Amino acid sequence: MHEFELIEQCFARSGYRRNDVSIGVGDDGAVIQVRDGFDLVVTTDTMVQGVHFFPNVDPRSLGHKLVAVNVSDLAAMGAEPCWLSLGLTLPVVDNEWLKAFAEGLSETADYYNCQLVGGDTTRGPLTLTLCAKGIVPRGKALSRAGAKVGDYVYVTGTLGDSALGLKVEQGQCEISKKHRGHILQRFHYPTARVAIGQALRTIASSCMDISDGLCGDLPHILKRSGVGAIIDVAKIPMSQALKDSCDWQQALQCALSGGEDYELLFTVPEDKRGSLEVLLSPYGVPVTCIGRITGAAGKLELRHLDQPFVYHHSGYQHF
């Protein structure tokens, strides 16, 4: 299969079609109508075989994950996901692999109302790069800057399941059949909290998604905002599956340092806490307060039941 046949058969005809795309896949560039009064939000993520995914991974789940992790970045900015561009580097053309990958990508793009509008294909080590674009009302984008002393620190959902899923796939641990499906689903098929991110535009002072672990990601907010934080590890939300499958120390390490949760980590001023539960209740996703912002710039302090908690692990490091 030649390059343009590959694009035509796998990516050009399938997927959600947006009314604001004048020209999509198949031309030298995409033509997109951006709404007046909105800002464009752009994010890019790369996944490399042997670094970010196993060689034997289900290509359908890989297509899903590639979209979800990029859309999660848009969610953290409070943006509406709109358009995707795919950079696909392949060692060989495997028609069955490509079909499954394209189906996973297309199904997930449809779910988030995104359209694949272009990209590039080339030969080389299996590498997947996606550029996701979204829109947010002008001046309303969330960022890692903006946390203030006294703000409360929150996370959506539960943390640590994906890290345990990685350990299962690596053969480092065994878990019960009762919990195996949930844990592996969280690892292979993450969910981007898009609706919650948009709801937080009016209430959060800062926001990001958790991709490298809480202890790896929260310092980014602290640095950008020029503040510190105290986190109570006893309040870290964990699923029953994680708690049943590990002892507390192992579960906590997964939750603090495991990464790839793609939950939202955000701060809320005290005067807006009262409306938070009402604002987010329609989405059916638990939101947990785990700490508070302090004036100790750049310092992340962990406590357990008001006592200092010593912890030597950080989040995932790319280099």
Structure description:
- The two termini are 36 Å apart.
- Helix 2 runs parallel beside helix 3, helix 4 packs across helix 5 and helix 4 crosses helix 9.
- It contains ten helices and 13 strands.
- The longest helix has 18 residues.
- The mean pLDDT is 91.
- 42% of the residues are buried.
- With 319 residues, it is α+β, with helices and mostly antiparallel strands.
- Helix content is 34%, strand content 25%.
- A hairpin with a 7-residue loop joins strand 1 and strand 2.
- It has two domains: 135 residues, PurM-like, N-terminal domain (60s Ribosomal Protein L30, Chain: A); 157 residues, PurM-like C-terminal domain (Phosphoribosyl-aminoimidazole Synthetase, Chain A, domain 2, Alpha-Beta Complex).
- The strands form three sheets. The chain has a seven-stranded mixed beta sheet with strand order 8-10-7-11-9-12-13.
- Its EC number is 2.7.4.16.
- Pathway: Cofactor biosynthesis; thiamine diphosphate biosynthesis; thiamine diphosphate from thiamine phosphate: step 1/1.
- Belongs to the thiamine-monophosphate kinase family.
- It catalyses: thiamine phosphate + ATP = thiamine diphosphate + ADP.
- Catalyzes the ATP-dependent phosphorylation of thiamine-monophosphate (TMP) to form thiamine-pyrophosphate (TPP), the active form of vitamin B1.
In short:
The protein is α+β, with helices and mostly antiparallel strands and 319 residues long.
Q: N-to-C SSE series?
A: HEEEHEHEEEHHHEHEHHEHEEE
Report the CATH topology name of the largest domain.
Phosphoribosyl-aminoimidazole Synthetase, Chain A, domain 2
Helical proportion, percent range = 25-40%
- As a percent range, the share of strand residues is 25-35%
Largest sheet: 7 strands, mixed
Compute the number of helices. Answer: 10
Binding site for ATP: 119-120, 144, 211
Keywords: ATP-binding, Kinase, Magnesium, Metal-binding, Nucleotide-binding, Thiamine biosynthesis, Transferase
Protein name: Thiamine-monophosphate kinase
Domain PurM-like C-terminal: 148-297
